[in-house]
Amino acid sequence: MNSVEFIDVSKSYAVYESPGDRLKELVTLNRRRFHRDFWALRDLTFSVRTGETFCVIGENGSGKSTLLQCVAGILQPTTGTVETRGRVAALLELGSGFNPEFSGRDNVYLNGSILGFSTAQMDQKFKEIEQFAEIGDFIDQPVKTYSSGMAVRLAFAVAIHVDPQILLVDEALAVGDIYFRQRCMRKVHELRTRGITILFVSHAIGDVKAIGDRTLWLEEGRIRELGDTEKVVGKYLAAMVEKDSAYLTLSRRPRPERAAERVVAPEVVEHIPNIDHRHGDGRAEVIGIAVMDAYGTPIHLLQPHSRIIVRVSVRAKEDIPQPIIGFMLRNHLGMDFSGTNTARLGYEVAPMQAGDVYTVDFHVDFPELYPGSFSFSPAIADGTLHSYRMCDWIDNAVTLQMGHGDGQIYGFMHLPCRVVVNSRLEGQLG
């Protein structure tokens, strides 16, 4: 069953060159046009399944917010049909749905009444909303006195406590502090497990990969890609890298008289265990990756507090003046956990000529991470850290499980630290 359906939906706005043009059009009773149509959405047809977390990504101006406003009923499509099945709670633009002259308390009850709740029902929900928002005495102050973070705290608290069947979230969490943002993301995961349909718009690709069942990539109001989140996000990031590289003029630094020697490992790796997605301009390619212990033996389990070697072999198909070789580490949610490359580590790899094969060993002291699965995505690029062209990137080429350490992991990893109890600072003794 589908909770949201778009059927040939398009949305246009009238754009006037000057305020006077709008008046001219009114005077002629719209018989003459003094505007041009800007199409924010064009020919969208898709559906969102009940209980699905459906993410929407795209550049600014691609139509993401317009899409959500059509779902919320704030906007009506110019052509086509938008159908929703279930109560919709929306966290859209900051303060949307709030009357700035009313207090936070009044706005909570106003939003509840719009959604069909009685005053008695909102009385039962108010305490939970107030506790989740954590804005203190400001709950009885006019919303116009709120900071953007306080407004989004209250808006999110209302949206999740009015028993939504469809929750819309449009980038609003980006303005919140890290503490509240983490609470919100935990609540989103909780709603997912309860089968709530979620439409989530964000530029935070890590959040999209962590929660998205499917992802829609909008480009200039049209569907560019729609499908599995990992694949769509991979293509989107590849396109953004390509666009960034085209925008920036690739800087060619003068080569030092004594360039760093080629980093060549004893053995070339010519095996790639897995390829989820691959992108790049193809001027060079990753031909192999291996994860080994400190003695060069391939491993099948990551151990806490151990040293590993991530070996990446690449081959140039054309001349690569400034090769950068590296890898990205991802967790089991698909979030980019950590990454490194030769340029980031200060190693200048010598230029590659067509046919050259380089092998780079990354010696990594692995910390104690929570026992999940982690994947390695190797890559080779040409340029600098600030301006480069991606030659080849392979998503999730190797996946390994993290073994259990001595104790429980709180969060993502254990940070080694030294504990001093009831001590005076050094230098104050005497």
Concise overview:
By secondary structure, this protein is of the alpha+beta class.
- SSE order, as H and E? EHEEHEEHHHEHEHEEHEEEEEEEEEEEE
Total tally of structural domains: 2
Q: Tell me about the biggest sheet? A: 7 strands, mixed
- Percent of residues in beta strands: 25-35%
CATH architecture of the largest domain: 3-Layer(aba) Sandwich
Helix content: 10-25%
CATH class of the largest domain: Alpha Beta
Overview of this structure, please?
There is one protein chain. With 430 residues, this protein is an alpha+beta fold. The protein has two domains: 2-239, P-loop containing nucleotide triphosphate hydrolases (Rossmann fold), CATH 3.40.50.300; 278-413, abc- transporter (atp binding component) like domain (Coagulation Factor XIII, Chain A, domain 1). The protein is 23% helix and 33% strand. The protein contains eight helices and 21 strands. Strands 10, 12, 14, 15, 18, 19 and 20 form a seven-stranded mixed beta sheet that branches. A six-stranded mixed beta sheet has the order 5-6-7-3-8-9, with helices on both faces. A three-stranded antiparallel beta sheet has the order 2-1-4. Helix 4 (119-133) packs across helix 5 (148-161). The model is unreliable at 248-266 (pLDDT under 50).
